[in-house]
Amino acid sequence: MPEKEQITAPIIDKGFPPLQLAWQVWGCGAALYVLGFFQRVAPAVMTTELTRDFGLTAVGLGNLSAYYFYSYVAMQIPTGILADRLGPRKLLAGGALMATLGSIVFATAHGEIIAGIGRLLVGGSVAVAFVGMLKLAGHWFAPRQFALASGMALFCGIMGAVFAGVPLRLLVSTLGWRPVMLWASLLTLAVSALIWVVVRDDPAERGYQSHLVHSEGRAGSSSIWDELMEVLRYRNTWLLILSPGGIVGSVLTFSGLWGIPFLTTHYAMAPTTSAALTSALMVAWAIGGPLLGGMSDRIGRRKVLYAASNFIAVAAWAPIIFIPGLPVGILTALLLVAGFASGGMIIGFAFAKESVPARLSGTVSGAVNMGVMVGPMILQPAVGWILDRNWSGITAGGAQLYGWNAYRAGFALMLAWALAACLLILLTRETYCRQRQ
Protein backbone atom coordinates (compact mmCIF):
# COMPACT_ATOMS: atom_id res chain seq x y z
CA MET A 1 0.00 0.00 0.00
CA PRO A 2 1.42 3.45 -0.82
CA GLU A 3 3.00 5.40 2.00
CA LYS A 4 0.32 7.77 3.30
CA GLU A 5 2.75 10.50 4.26
CA GLN A 6 4.09 10.81 0.71
CA ILE A 7 1.68 13.48 -0.51
CA THR A 8 1.34 13.35 -4.29
CA ALA A 9 -0.72 16.50 -4.77
CA PRO A 10 1.21 19.32 -6.49
CA ILE A 11 2.68 21.76 -4.02
CA ILE A 12 2.42 25.47 -4.75
CA ASP A 13 5.24 27.41 -3.15
CA LYS A 14 3.24 29.23 -0.50
CA GLY A 15 5.41 28.17 2.40
CA PHE A 16 3.88 26.71 5.53
CA PRO A 17 0.12 27.12 6.05
CA PRO A 18 -1.06 30.17 8.01
CA LEU A 19 -1.75 29.37 11.62
CA GLN A 20 -5.38 30.42 11.32
CA LEU A 21 -6.02 27.86 8.57
CA ALA A 22 -4.18 25.18 10.53
CA TRP A 23 -6.38 25.76 13.58
CA GLN A 24 -9.52 25.69 11.40
CA VAL A 25 -8.65 22.30 9.93
CA TRP A 26 -7.61 20.93 13.31
CA GLY A 27 -10.69 22.46 14.95
CA CYS A 28 -13.07 20.35 12.86
CA GLY A 29 -11.51 17.24 14.34
CA ALA A 30 -11.70 18.91 17.74
CA ALA A 31 -15.48 19.33 17.29
CA LEU A 32 -15.88 15.55 17.12
CA TYR A 33 -13.64 15.16 20.16
CA VAL A 34 -15.84 17.60 22.09
CA LEU A 35 -18.91 15.51 21.31
CA GLY A 36 -17.04 12.30 22.12
CA PHE A 37 -16.05 13.60 25.54
CA PHE A 38 -19.64 14.75 26.12
CA GLN A 39 -20.86 11.21 25.45
CA ARG A 40 -18.06 9.79 27.60
CA VAL A 41 -19.13 11.46 30.84
CA ALA A 42 -22.84 12.06 30.21
CA PRO A 43 -23.93 9.04 32.34
CA ALA A 44 -22.48 10.77 35.43
CA VAL A 45 -25.38 13.24 35.58
CA MET A 46 -27.98 10.69 34.51
CA THR A 47 -27.23 7.98 37.07
CA THR A 48 -30.69 8.17 38.69
CA GLU A 49 -32.54 8.15 35.35
CA LEU A 50 -30.45 5.33 33.88
CA THR A 51 -30.66 3.26 37.07
CA ARG A 52 -34.43 3.68 37.18
CA ASP A 53 -35.15 3.17 33.46
CA PHE A 54 -32.95 0.11 33.05
CA GLY A 55 -33.15 -1.32 36.60
CA LEU A 56 -29.38 -1.20 37.15
CA THR A 57 -27.20 -2.02 40.15
CA ALA A 58 -23.87 -0.20 40.69
CA VAL A 59 -22.07 -2.88 38.67
CA GLY A 60 -24.67 -2.60 35.90
CA LEU A 61 -24.39 1.18 35.80
CA GLY A 62 -20.60 0.95 35.76
CA ASN A 63 -20.71 -1.51 32.89
CA LEU A 64 -23.21 0.57 30.90
CA SER A 65 -20.93 3.59 31.19
CA ALA A 66 -17.84 1.47 30.46
CA TYR A 67 -19.27 0.01 27.23
CA TYR A 68 -18.06 3.26 25.69
CA PHE A 69 -14.51 2.50 26.83
CA TYR A 70 -14.58 -1.16 25.76
CA SER A 71 -14.98 -0.28 22.09
CA TYR A 72 -12.91 2.92 22.42
CA VAL A 73 -9.92 0.95 23.67
CA ALA A 74 -10.40 -1.83 21.11
CA MET A 75 -10.34 0.72 18.28
CA GLN A 76 -7.16 2.55 19.25
CA ILE A 77 -4.59 0.37 17.48
CA PRO A 78 -6.72 0.05 14.29
CA THR A 79 -7.40 3.79 14.45
CA GLY A 80 -3.73 4.69 14.70
CA ILE A 81 -2.81 2.46 11.78
CA LEU A 82 -5.75 3.65 9.67
CA ALA A 83 -4.77 7.25 10.42
CA ASP A 84 -1.34 6.50 8.96
CA ARG A 85 -2.78 4.72 5.91
CA LEU A 86 -6.10 6.41 5.07
CA GLY A 87 -5.58 9.86 6.53
CA PRO A 88 -7.57 11.70 9.19
CA ARG A 89 -10.22 13.26 6.91
CA LYS A 90 -11.93 9.99 5.95
CA LEU A 91 -11.42 8.58 9.42
CA LEU A 92 -12.94 11.55 11.26
CA ALA A 93 -15.92 12.00 8.93
CA GLY A 94 -16.75 8.30 9.00
CA GLY A 95 -16.37 8.16 12.77
CA ALA A 96 -18.80 11.04 13.21
CA LEU A 97 -21.38 9.24 11.06
CA MET A 98 -21.15 6.07 13.12
CA ALA A 99 -21.30 8.07 16.36
CA THR A 100 -24.55 9.59 15.14
CA LEU A 101 -26.03 6.12 14.74
CA GLY A 102 -24.78 4.99 18.15
CA SER A 103 -26.27 8.02 19.89
CA ILE A 104 -29.65 7.34 18.29
CA VAL A 105 -29.55 3.69 19.38
CA PHE A 106 -28.70 4.69 22.97
CA ALA A 107 -31.37 7.38 23.13
CA THR A 108 -34.13 5.07 21.91
CA ALA A 109 -33.11 1.93 23.84
CA HIS A 110 -35.63 0.30 26.18
CA GLY A 111 -33.33 -2.31 27.61
CA GLU A 112 -29.82 -2.50 29.04
CA ILE A 113 -28.46 -4.60 26.17
CA ILE A 114 -29.57 -2.21 23.40
CA ALA A 115 -28.37 0.78 25.44
CA GLY A 116 -25.01 -0.96 25.79
CA ILE A 117 -24.83 -1.52 22.03
CA GLY A 118 -25.46 2.20 21.53
CA ARG A 119 -22.64 3.04 23.94
CA LEU A 120 -20.36 0.56 22.12
CA LEU A 121 -21.09 2.21 18.77
CA VAL A 122 -20.45 5.69 20.14
CA GLY A 123 -17.22 4.74 21.89
CA GLY A 124 -15.78 2.87 18.92
CA SER A 125 -16.71 5.70 16.54
CA VAL A 126 -15.40 8.71 18.45
CA ALA A 127 -12.24 6.72 19.19
CA VAL A 128 -10.89 8.13 15.93
CA ALA A 129 -11.12 11.75 17.11
CA PHE A 130 -8.04 12.17 19.28
CA VAL A 131 -5.65 10.21 17.08
CA GLY A 132 -7.02 12.00 14.01
CA MET A 133 -6.36 15.35 15.68
CA LEU A 134 -2.81 14.34 16.53
CA LYS A 135 -2.25 13.20 12.96
CA LEU A 136 -3.52 16.54 11.65
CA ALA A 137 -1.31 18.36 14.15
CA GLY A 138 1.76 16.52 12.87
CA HIS A 139 1.08 17.79 9.33
CA TRP A 140 -0.38 21.27 9.94
CA PHE A 141 1.68 22.49 12.94
CA ALA A 142 5.40 22.92 13.52
CA PRO A 143 6.98 20.17 15.70
CA ARG A 144 7.55 22.65 18.53
CA GLN A 145 3.77 23.20 18.68
CA PHE A 146 2.79 19.53 18.87
CA ALA A 147 2.55 19.24 22.65
CA LEU A 148 0.59 22.51 22.77
CA ALA A 149 -1.82 21.20 20.12
CA SER A 150 -2.18 17.97 22.11
CA GLY A 151 -2.98 19.99 25.22
CA MET A 152 -5.52 22.07 23.34
CA ALA A 153 -7.11 18.83 22.15
CA LEU A 154 -7.59 17.81 25.76
CA PHE A 155 -8.94 21.27 26.55
CA CYS A 156 -11.53 21.03 23.77
CA GLY A 157 -12.58 17.55 24.80
CA ILE A 158 -13.06 18.53 28.40
CA MET A 159 -15.24 21.43 27.34
CA GLY A 160 -17.55 18.71 26.08
CA ALA A 161 -17.35 17.09 29.50
CA VAL A 162 -18.16 20.42 31.17
CA PHE A 163 -21.29 20.73 29.06
CA ALA A 164 -22.14 17.21 30.22
CA GLY A 165 -22.17 18.60 33.79
CA VAL A 166 -24.54 21.30 34.99
CA PRO A 167 -25.95 22.23 31.54
CA LEU A 168 -26.76 18.61 30.74
CA ARG A 169 -28.24 18.10 34.21
CA LEU A 170 -30.57 21.05 33.67
CA LEU A 171 -31.54 19.87 30.19
CA VAL A 172 -32.21 16.34 31.41
CA SER A 173 -34.35 17.69 34.25
CA THR A 174 -36.33 19.81 31.77
CA LEU A 175 -36.56 17.65 28.64
CA GLY A 176 -35.59 14.14 29.75
CA TRP A 177 -32.40 12.29 28.89
CA ARG A 178 -33.66 10.66 25.69
CA PRO A 179 -34.53 13.87 23.77
CA VAL A 180 -31.21 15.42 24.80
CA MET A 181 -29.28 12.43 23.43
CA LEU A 182 -31.25 12.62 20.18
CA TRP A 183 -30.32 16.29 19.74
CA ALA A 184 -26.68 15.33 20.39
CA SER A 185 -26.89 12.82 17.53
CA LEU A 186 -28.07 15.52 15.10
CA LEU A 187 -25.19 17.77 16.12
CA THR A 188 -22.74 14.91 15.50
CA LEU A 189 -24.16 14.43 12.00
CA ALA A 190 -23.53 18.12 11.27
CA VAL A 191 -19.93 17.77 12.46
CA SER A 192 -19.39 14.87 10.05
CA ALA A 193 -20.42 17.08 7.13
CA LEU A 194 -18.18 19.92 8.36
CA ILE A 195 -15.15 17.63 8.55
CA TRP A 196 -15.66 16.39 5.01
CA VAL A 197 -15.90 19.92 3.62
CA VAL A 198 -13.07 21.60 5.56
CA VAL A 199 -10.46 19.03 6.59
CA ARG A 200 -7.54 18.02 4.37
CA ASP A 201 -4.96 15.47 5.42
CA ASP A 202 -1.94 17.60 4.55
CA PRO A 203 -1.28 21.29 3.73
CA ALA A 204 -0.01 20.16 0.31
CA GLU A 205 -3.63 19.55 -0.65
CA ARG A 206 -4.20 23.28 -0.16
CA GLY A 207 -0.96 24.28 -1.88
CA TYR A 208 1.16 24.77 1.24
CA GLN A 209 4.29 23.11 2.55
CA SER A 210 3.78 20.30 5.06
CA HIS A 211 5.26 20.36 8.57
CA LEU A 212 5.56 16.57 8.56
CA VAL A 213 9.07 15.32 9.32
CA HIS A 214 9.66 12.51 6.82
CA SER A 215 11.78 9.56 7.78
CA GLU A 216 13.25 6.66 5.88
CA GLY A 217 12.25 3.10 6.54
CA ARG A 218 8.91 1.43 6.13
CA ALA A 219 8.13 0.00 2.77
CA GLY A 220 4.76 0.87 1.41
CA SER A 221 3.78 -2.82 1.45
CA SER A 222 4.52 -3.41 5.15
CA SER A 223 1.66 -5.05 7.01
CA ILE A 224 -0.38 -3.59 9.84
CA TRP A 225 1.07 -6.26 12.11
CA ASP A 226 4.63 -5.27 11.14
CA GLU A 227 3.91 -1.63 11.97
CA LEU A 228 2.48 -2.50 15.36
CA MET A 229 5.36 -4.81 16.19
CA GLU A 230 7.83 -2.12 15.16
CA VAL A 231 6.20 0.41 17.48
CA LEU A 232 6.24 -2.05 20.37
CA ARG A 233 9.98 -2.70 19.96
CA TYR A 234 10.70 0.69 21.52
CA ARG A 235 11.00 0.66 25.32
CA ASN A 236 9.26 3.99 25.86
CA THR A 237 6.19 2.78 23.98
CA TRP A 238 5.37 0.14 26.57
CA LEU A 239 5.91 2.46 29.51
CA LEU A 240 3.89 5.28 27.96
CA ILE A 241 1.02 2.92 27.10
CA LEU A 242 0.80 1.59 30.66
CA SER A 243 1.28 4.84 32.58
CA PRO A 244 -1.66 7.16 31.68
CA GLY A 245 -4.47 4.76 32.61
CA GLY A 246 -4.10 5.39 36.33
CA ILE A 247 -4.22 9.18 36.11
CA VAL A 248 -6.95 9.44 33.48
CA GLY A 249 -8.83 6.56 35.05
CA SER A 250 -8.97 8.42 38.35
CA VAL A 251 -10.31 11.61 36.76
CA LEU A 252 -12.93 9.90 34.61
CA THR A 253 -14.01 7.40 37.27
CA PHE A 254 -14.65 10.24 39.69
CA SER A 255 -15.96 12.95 37.37
CA GLY A 256 -17.35 10.59 34.77
CA LEU A 257 -19.49 8.40 37.04
CA TRP A 258 -19.04 8.05 40.79
CA GLY A 259 -18.10 11.55 41.97
CA ILE A 260 -21.62 13.01 41.87
CA PRO A 261 -23.31 10.27 43.96
CA PHE A 262 -20.32 10.40 46.35
CA LEU A 263 -20.62 14.15 46.85
CA THR A 264 -24.42 14.16 47.15
CA THR A 265 -24.36 11.33 49.70
CA HIS A 266 -21.39 12.27 51.87
CA TYR A 267 -21.17 16.02 51.47
CA ALA A 268 -24.94 16.66 51.28
CA MET A 269 -24.57 18.57 48.01
CA ALA A 270 -27.42 19.11 45.57
CA PRO A 271 -27.00 17.22 42.26
CA THR A 272 -26.32 20.47 40.37
CA THR A 273 -23.71 21.52 42.94
CA SER A 274 -22.03 18.12 42.72
CA ALA A 275 -22.08 18.34 38.93
CA ALA A 276 -20.53 21.81 39.11
CA LEU A 277 -17.71 20.56 41.34
CA THR A 278 -16.91 17.57 39.15
CA SER A 279 -17.05 19.89 36.13
CA ALA A 280 -14.56 22.19 37.88
CA LEU A 281 -12.22 19.21 38.20
CA MET A 282 -12.55 18.64 34.45
CA VAL A 283 -11.94 22.33 33.69
CA ALA A 284 -8.76 22.23 35.77
CA TRP A 285 -7.72 19.16 33.79
CA ALA A 286 -8.45 21.02 30.55
CA ILE A 287 -6.34 24.00 31.63
CA GLY A 288 -3.49 21.84 32.87
CA GLY A 289 -3.15 20.00 29.55
CA PRO A 290 -2.10 22.87 27.26
CA LEU A 291 -0.18 24.72 30.00
CA LEU A 292 1.90 21.70 31.01
CA GLY A 293 2.26 20.59 27.39
CA GLY A 294 3.46 24.04 26.37
CA MET A 295 5.83 24.18 29.34
CA SER A 296 7.30 20.83 28.29
CA ASP A 297 7.93 22.25 24.80
CA ARG A 298 9.63 25.34 26.24
CA ILE A 299 11.96 23.58 28.67
CA GLY A 300 12.81 20.84 26.17
CA ARG A 301 12.01 18.02 28.59
CA ARG A 302 9.26 15.39 28.73
CA LYS A 303 10.06 12.94 31.53
CA VAL A 304 10.64 15.23 34.51
CA LEU A 305 7.50 17.32 34.02
CA TYR A 306 5.32 14.29 33.23
CA ALA A 307 6.48 12.48 36.37
CA ALA A 308 6.21 15.54 38.64
CA SER A 309 2.66 16.37 37.55
CA ASN A 310 1.54 12.79 38.16
CA PHE A 311 3.03 12.70 41.66
CA ILE A 312 1.22 15.94 42.50
CA ALA A 313 -2.07 14.45 41.30
CA VAL A 314 -1.58 11.40 43.53
CA ALA A 315 -0.82 13.64 46.51
CA ALA A 316 -4.08 15.54 45.92
CA TRP A 317 -6.26 12.43 45.52
CA ALA A 318 -5.04 10.77 48.71
CA PRO A 319 -6.79 13.05 51.27
CA ILE A 320 -9.97 13.17 49.16
CA ILE A 321 -10.18 9.39 49.36
CA PHE A 322 -9.03 8.74 52.91
CA ILE A 323 -10.10 11.76 54.98
CA PRO A 324 -13.88 11.98 55.57
CA GLY A 325 -15.73 15.25 56.06
CA LEU A 326 -13.19 17.61 54.52
CA PRO A 327 -14.21 21.28 54.56
CA VAL A 328 -15.78 22.06 51.19
CA GLY A 329 -13.14 24.70 50.45
CA ILE A 330 -10.30 22.24 50.98
CA LEU A 331 -12.13 19.51 49.06
CA THR A 332 -12.61 21.89 46.14
CA ALA A 333 -8.97 22.97 46.18
CA LEU A 334 -7.74 19.38 46.21
CA LEU A 335 -9.99 18.43 43.30
CA LEU A 336 -8.72 21.40 41.30
CA VAL A 337 -5.08 20.50 42.01
CA ALA A 338 -5.71 16.86 41.09
CA GLY A 339 -7.37 17.93 37.86
CA PHE A 340 -4.72 20.46 36.85
CA ALA A 341 -1.82 18.11 37.59
CA SER A 342 -3.55 15.28 35.70
CA GLY A 343 -3.28 17.44 32.59
CA GLY A 344 0.37 16.42 32.49
CA MET A 345 -0.72 13.14 30.89
CA ILE A 346 -0.93 15.01 27.59
CA ILE A 347 2.88 15.17 27.56
CA GLY A 348 2.84 11.42 27.05
CA PHE A 349 1.59 11.77 23.47
CA ALA A 350 4.44 14.05 22.38
CA PHE A 351 6.82 11.88 24.41
CA ALA A 352 5.65 8.73 22.59
CA LYS A 353 5.62 10.38 19.16
CA GLU A 354 9.26 11.42 19.62
CA SER A 355 10.22 7.95 20.83
CA VAL A 356 9.52 6.26 17.48
CA PRO A 357 10.14 7.23 13.82
CA ALA A 358 7.79 9.94 12.57
CA ARG A 359 6.19 7.60 10.01
CA LEU A 360 4.69 5.63 12.93
CA SER A 361 3.17 8.63 14.71
CA GLY A 362 -0.43 7.57 14.16
CA THR A 363 0.20 4.02 15.29
CA VAL A 364 2.00 5.00 18.49
CA SER A 365 -0.61 7.69 19.27
CA GLY A 366 -3.33 5.06 18.99
CA ALA A 367 -1.39 2.69 21.23
CA VAL A 368 -0.91 5.33 23.93
CA ASN A 369 -4.52 6.47 23.71
CA MET A 370 -5.55 2.85 24.19
CA GLY A 371 -3.57 2.87 27.44
CA VAL A 372 -5.28 6.11 28.46
CA MET A 373 -8.77 4.65 28.12
CA VAL A 374 -7.97 1.30 29.72
CA GLY A 375 -7.99 3.15 33.05
CA PRO A 376 -11.65 4.26 33.12
CA MET A 377 -12.69 1.12 31.24
CA ILE A 378 -11.49 -1.03 34.13
CA LEU A 379 -11.96 1.34 37.06
CA GLN A 380 -15.57 2.42 36.48
CA PRO A 381 -17.09 -1.09 36.73
CA ALA A 382 -14.47 -2.20 39.29
CA VAL A 383 -15.42 0.63 41.65
CA GLY A 384 -19.07 -0.27 41.08
CA TRP A 385 -18.36 -3.89 41.97
CA ILE A 386 -16.70 -2.85 45.24
CA LEU A 387 -19.59 -0.52 46.04
CA ASP A 388 -22.09 -3.34 45.56
CA ARG A 389 -19.98 -5.64 47.75
CA ASN A 390 -20.10 -3.04 50.54
CA TRP A 391 -23.73 -1.93 50.11
CA SER A 392 -25.70 -1.79 53.37
CA GLY A 393 -29.12 -2.04 51.72
CA ILE A 394 -30.04 1.68 51.82
CA THR A 395 -31.91 3.15 48.83
CA ALA A 396 -33.33 6.55 47.89
CA GLY A 397 -35.53 7.34 44.90
CA GLY A 398 -34.99 3.87 43.47
CA ALA A 399 -31.17 4.19 43.56
CA GLN A 400 -28.78 2.46 45.95
CA LEU A 401 -26.81 4.57 48.45
CA TYR A 402 -23.31 3.60 49.53
CA GLY A 403 -21.45 4.39 52.74
CA TRP A 404 -18.12 6.15 53.20
CA ASN A 405 -16.19 2.92 53.67
CA ALA A 406 -17.58 1.57 50.42
CA TYR A 407 -16.42 4.61 48.46
CA ARG A 408 -13.04 4.61 50.19
CA ALA A 409 -12.45 0.98 49.23
CA GLY A 410 -13.52 1.62 45.63
CA PHE A 411 -11.55 4.83 45.17
CA ALA A 412 -8.43 3.21 46.66
CA LEU A 413 -8.13 1.32 43.36
CA MET A 414 -7.77 4.66 41.59
CA LEU A 415 -4.99 5.78 43.88
CA ALA A 416 -3.04 2.51 43.59
CA TRP A 417 -3.06 2.62 39.80
CA ALA A 418 -2.15 6.33 39.71
CA LEU A 419 0.84 5.67 41.96
CA ALA A 420 1.97 2.78 39.76
CA ALA A 421 1.75 5.14 36.77
CA CYS A 422 4.16 7.54 38.44
CA LEU A 423 6.72 4.78 38.89
CA LEU A 424 6.41 3.68 35.26
CA ILE A 425 7.14 7.21 34.02
CA LEU A 426 10.36 7.25 36.04
CA LEU A 427 11.56 4.28 33.94
CA THR A 428 11.20 6.10 30.59
CA ARG A 429 14.07 7.55 28.58
CA GLU A 430 14.07 11.29 27.93
CA THR A 431 13.71 12.44 24.30
CA TYR A 432 14.59 16.12 24.94
CA CYS A 433 11.71 17.06 22.61
CA ARG A 434 13.61 15.70 19.59
CA GLN A 435 12.05 13.39 17.03
CA ARG A 436 13.67 9.99 16.60
CA GLN A 437 14.85 9.54 13.00
Gross CATH architecture? Up-down Bundle
Q: Give the rounded overall mean pLDDT.
A: 86
- The percentage helix is over 70%
Give start-end ranges of low-pLDDT stretches.
Answer: 1-12, 215-221
Explain this structure to me?
With 437 residues, the chain is mainly alpha-helical. The protein has a single domain (19-207, 222-426), classed as Growth Hormone, Chain: A. The chain is 74% helix and 1% strand. It is built from 17 helices and two strands. It has helices spanning 19-41, 47-54, 58-85, 88-108, 112-140, 146-163, 166-175, 177-198, 224-232, 235-242, 244-266, 271-299, 303-322, 328-342, 347-354, 361-389, 404-426, and strands at residues 395-396, 399-400. It has a two-stranded antiparallel ribbon with strand order 1-2. Strand 1 (395-396) and strand 2 form a beta hairpin. Helix 4 runs antiparallel to helix 8 (177-198) and helix 10 (235-242) packs parallel to helix 16. It is globular, with a radius of gyration of 21 Å. 55% of the residues are buried.
